[in-house]
Amino acid sequence: MRSAWGALLLVTMEGLAAEPPLRFSIADSWAMPVVQIERGRPTQGILHDMLASLATQVGRPAEFHVLARARVQAAMDHKEIDIRCYAAKSWLANQPGDYLWSVPLFVQRDLLVAREHLPITPKDLSPQPIGTVLSYTYPSLQPLFDSHQLLRDDARNQEQVLQKLWAGRYRYAVSNQWTLDWFNQTLPADQQLHGVAVLQEQAVGCIIRNDPALPVQRVLRTLLRMKMSGEIDDLIGLYTGRRPTEDPSLSYETP
C-alpha cells in the first residue's frame, strides 16, 4: 500500500514538474511594500505574494526574473518573460508584439512628499533638486524638469529616494502612496514624511504575451477572480495597514 501511494505521489510530482513555469518580471527599482528583493530574488511584498498565488491557482510554477526597469519590456519582446505586472497602458502605449491586458488591479497614486506637512503646488516651487527614481518618468513634472526649475536627483529605488529625503538631502521627492505608508510605519509620528501634492493617479494591472504556449485566458480569468474576491485588496491591507476602497472608475469586465 505504501509503495502504491509513493508511486502515485511520484506521478503527481512529475506532472507538476512537467508544467513550464510562468515567468514574471520584477523591476529592481521596486521597494516594499511592492516587493522585497534579497540577494537578487524577491521574497515578500504585495506583488510577490500576488504573483505566487496567481501561479498556484493557474497550476504552474512561478519563476521570477529581477531586471532593471528599462529592460523589462525588451525581455517581454524577446520572450524571456511571460507576464509583466504593475504596469499602466499609458506607459506602454506603443509596445510592439501581441499582448493582452488584465483588468485594472491597483491604483497607483504618485505624491510629492516632504518632511513638513504644508500643501504646495509643484509649479510654485523655487529652482531645486527633487528626489526621483532612476529611469522613472513623471509626466506632470516633466515641464518643470525641461525648464530646469526642478532638477532630478535619481536614486536606484523608491526606498532610497525617501531615505535621502528624510536625511535632508533635498526638500521634496516623488513617492507612490504605498511606499510612503510603508516607510512611515518605522518612524515616530513627529518624524514621518507627508504627501503635500497628488501628482497623478492611474490604474495599473498585468500584461501577458498572447502566446498559444501560455494559459493566457486562465491567467486573465484568475486575476479577475482574485480582484473581485478581495484577495488582492486584502494583500494591500496586509502590507500597508489599510485596505483600499473600491474605485468606481475601474472596470472589472471579463476579458
TrEMBL record:
Gene3D superfamilies noted in UniProt: Periplasmic binding protein-like II
Name this protein carries in UniProt: Amino acid ABC transporter substrate-binding protein
Source organism of this protein record: Pseudomonas chlororaphis
